[in-house]
Amino acid sequence: MPAPFDIIIPTWNNLPYLQNCIDGIRSHSEAEHHLIVHVNEGTDATADWLEKEGISFTHSEENIGICEAFNRSMQLAKHDYLLYMNDDMYVLPGWDSALARRIPEGRLWMLSATMIEPRPGGNPVVVVADFGRSLEAFRKKELIRQAGLLKRADWSGSAWPPLLMPRQAIEAVGGFSTEFSPGMYSDPDLAMKFWKLGNRFFLGVGDSLVYHFQARSTGRVIKNNGRLTFMKKWGITASAFYKYYLRMGRSPDLPLSEPPARKLLPNRIRVKLKSIHW
């Protein structure tokens, strides 16, 4: 049986999807994980339901986004491993044991489960298969029956949820960076902080599967310009970081290393950055 995780789930007035998410974790996990939910606003009685279910949670009167929500929730963690998950996800059988089998020796690494999404979005590591684009249309039993056919090979470039990390490492980098609130581009920023800390193990696990309904909260929020914030902070684009550092979607057999600087930022973007008054 795998060691238990602290599973942190930020939510924002999305109770039916949160309930579905937690039902999946309870039904399909081999270990008894510690759930921690951050309730943004909670005008839909989310906090009341969590209290009734005996689930740990933090709460803010307004929507503070995923960065601050994760950081607050992290204070309630009690295990060695932290997993960040979206509230519109549904894990499939064996998801946690598949992740646990890939945990390497050492205290610095990132592991991602593999998302199944109902429509293509340009993400090279996602399995595209439509089992419903809403809870009302969700074909859960069919998805579970076909899960074995949806597995893929492991891939390089872990940076997206469901995201498993050593608690000691995430605490060392200070959690998610709040300058990316409410959350756009906070994922590659966190991965870059792990990179700067010395991590070179960013693995996507092809047989740890989770269904993702896509943008159930981000579609409602006013988005930050995370793309520019990332470029300002790190001097490269997030896409260059994914491509040349993490080698997103490629075979994990090749070791990751610092790429040549000339590849990282096209001249047209360098000029654009110089012209921006921060």
Using the alpha-carbon principal axes, give the shape. Answer: globular
- How many helices in DSSP terms? 10
Secondary-structure element sequence?
Answer: EHEHEHEEHEEHEEHHEHHH
CATH architectural group = Alpha-Beta Complex
Largest sheet: 10 strands, mixed
How is the quaternary structure best described? single chain
Residue runs with pLDDT of under 50 for 5 or more positions: 267-278
User: What share of the residues lie within helices?
Assistant: 25-40%
What's the mean pLDDT score? 92
Derived structural class: alpha/beta
Radius of gyration computed on alpha carbons: 18 Å
Quick one: CATH class? Alpha Beta
Please identify which CATH superfamily we are dealing with. Spore Coat Polysaccharide Biosynthesis Protein SpsA, Chain A
Strand content: 15-25%
Tell me the distance between the termini. 50 Å
- Work out the count of structural domains: 1
The CATH topology comes to Spore Coat Polysaccharide Biosynthesis Protein SpsA, Chain A
Strands, count? 10
